[in-house]
Design a protein that fits this description.
The chain is an all-alpha fold. The chain has helices at 9-16, 19-46, 53-73, 77-101, 121-142, 148-165, 169-185, 190-210, 212-222, 230-242, 266-274, 276-299, 303-327, 345-361, 367-379; strands spanning 112-114, 117-119. The chain has 15 helices and two strands. It has a two-stranded antiparallel ribbon. The longest helix is centred in the first third of the chain and has 28 residues, at 19-46.
Length: 382
């Protein structure tokens, strides 16, 4: 046991970090290991790989993810701002490189290979962008004369433009929703609410008329008879087959034919083998993480920590909600991973960085430390 009397970085971290939030995140990771073992072997076998290829890589990615998560959770708000600036700059460079030299897969350029490792730079750009936007909004609240809000809008337009060029409308929608929520939390006027909503609706309308695969997905969602809806139909059958208690581990049928059973539709595989009760438990974990993080965020007196933690929690929750909604055929299909459960190295490590910052920002800090942070921010920018 770690004593409260020990004044080491580890002991201070242990007694200030939200241990319930940390436990929920670890439980989510363990659920991901179980569901990866259930969903990935048939996919690997179909494409001629070792049956446990994706499961082994899932575990392999989990190790650095845990290291990143714990390491980042030790950071101070000042260090988080600086790391976000570095990560965002590197991510933008990698996105530009992806557009220039990245391979085109299914009409999109989203991946770049560096030293034999496939990297999706947009994954790391998301949490870094949210933190930078939170910092700018907090500066705008402290110093109204500073054009921080305008800078946040410029950064948003730059990132969204790059993602649309890939194109990656799923990530674009996620970033817009997180940014809009953060903008609302920061106290924007109602005219901005309607303006932002109208802009988003206009962008979706333009995507429908100008991008064929977006129009196709929306048409298939509205009228299943208008195109191929095999994956969504199979996912819905999986929920029906599983019932409340599931068919049992390894007994699922949907994973044998679903091409993305280990990524986009792992939630449906879990429902078929372990039942709707497991899905409700996973949903409860996501809800607990978001609500707990939001409540801790609003308890802090540091504006930056409050905005950044809220934005990261919303980003995490909305991504999970989009994936589960696609599995339940509540929204058109999108390539969005289920945090810590779907297979994907870039996604998992970026999520670890995101929740690591969330843990760091929601740590209990003495009032004197918060006042010291505010005093430092007043003197200089991170």
């Amino acid at each position: 046991m770690i004593s409260r009397e020990q004044r080491t970085p580890l002991s201070e971290w242990w007694w200030t970090v939200d241990r319930l939030l940390l436990a929920a995140i670890i439980a989510l990771m363990l659920a991901g290991v179980i569901l990866s073992l259930a969903a990935s072997p048939p996919v690997a076998t179909r494409i001629g790989l070792d049956p446990f290829h994706f499961f082994n890589r899932h575990i392999l990615f989990l190790v650095p993810s845990v290291i990143v998560l714990i390491g980042v959770s030790f950071m101070t708000p000042r260090q988080i701002r600086r790391s976000a600036l570095v990560v965002f700059a590197i991510s933008i460079v990698l996105i530009l490189a992806t557009l220039l030299i990245g391979p085109e897969v299914k009409g999109a350029k989203r991946w770049i290979t560096i030293l034999g490792i496939n990297i999706q730079a947009s994954e790391s750009a998301k949490p870094a962008f949210v933190v930078i936007a939170a910092w700018l909004f907090s500066e705008s609240a402290r110093k109204p004369e500073m054009p921080a809000t305008s800078m946040a809008i410029v950064l948003l337009m730059m990132l969204v433009s790059l993602l649309v060029m890939q194109p990656d409308f799923g990530q674009t929608m996620l970033i817009l929703m997180a940014w809009g929520s953060l903008f609302f939390i920061a106290g924007m006027r109602m005219v901005w609410v309607f303006g932002l909503g109208a802009t988003a609706a206009g962008g979706l309308l333009m995507a429908y008329f100008l991008v064929p695969h977006v129009a196709g997905r929306i048409k298939r969602f509205m009228d299943p008879a208008s195109g191929d809806t095999f994956q969504v139909d199979t996912a819905m059958e999986a929920f029906s087959n599983g019932g409340w208690f599931g068919l049992g581990p390894g007994e699922g049928i949907a994973k044998r034919s679903l091409p993305d059973s280990h990524t986009d539709f792992v939630f449906a595989v879990g429902a078929e083998e372990f039942g709707i009760l497991l899905c409700l438990a996973v949903l409860a974990l996501f809800a607990f993480i978001v609500i707990r993080a939001m409540s801790r965020a609003y308890a802090t007196e540091d504006l930056f920590s409050r905005f950044a933690a809220s934005g990261l929690a919303i980003l995490f929750g909305v991504q999970a909600a989009i994936n589960m909604a696609v599995n339940l055929h509540l929204i058109p299909a999108k390539g969005m991973t289920l945090p810590f459960i779907s297979y994907g190295g870039s996604s998992m490590i970026s999520l670890a960085y995101s929740v690591g910052m969330l843990l760091a920002l929601t740590r209990m800090r003495p009032r004197t430390e918060v006042e010291a942070i505010d005093a430092h921010v007043a003197r200089t920018y991170a």
